[in-house]
Write a structure and sequence with these properties.
Two copies of one chain form a homodimer. Chain A contains six helices and two strands, in the order ααααββαα.
Chain lengths: ~110, ~110
């Protein structure tokens, strides 16, 4: 399911979304940058995400320069993902989303549609 | 393609993404909140988005309480989408994304992967 890429758009918001806008990715960055979970297994436990999806998202973030992959255990091989400066700089976005969510995405809405 | 819902998660970031985290949605909010484009046809021109996708995203934002739909032309019927307070409150998130993008999503990266 290839979606249209925002990579070549003029707007910095669009290009940001190309790097960090996929489903799950902001929550992965939240775990790494705000919660301090860096190990694959810990993130998978926390998010309840399919391992194949987590692998794909992490690889994308490594390629995009937001994470560095490091092996922390030989047998069995286990990896952690450390935030780069680009990822740490993403924290204000997460904080703004958090603040918005507290105000506007609090409880499930009682009424539907308009 | 039903993706896992973040609606019932404890984290306000997750619940925010359920409302505004789909592919295209932040750019639609950018057009409406920051650029002032509110008409369906103008957004479609600006984004180069498939009409069916734009319709789906706008409907979701209306249901979520971020937009109000209003007919501005009878024949042919044409609609515009006005931001509610919830949408206007999303501007700090867009500004934070803009700032991050200027710094970290500037030019296409020369080298690939790591």
């Amino acid at each position: 399911m290839k979606r249209k890429s925002f990579e070549d758009m003029d707007c910095p918001i669009a290009r940001s979304l190309e790097l960090v806008g996929e489903w799950w990715t902001p929550l992965i960055l939240r775990d790494i940058v705000m919660v301090g979970l860096t190990r694959f297994d810990d993130m998978q436990d926390d998010l309840g995400i399919a391992p194949t999806v987590l692998t794909s998202r992490l690889r994308h973030l490594v390629d995009a320069g937001l994470l560095e992959r490091r092996q922390y255990n030989e047998r069995p091989p286990r990896f952690e993902y450390l935030p780069t400066e680009a990822a740490r700089d993403f924290e204000p976005v997460l904080r703004a989303l958090f603040k918005w969510g507290v105000k506007w995405a609090g409880a499930p809405r009682a009424e539907a549609g308009t």
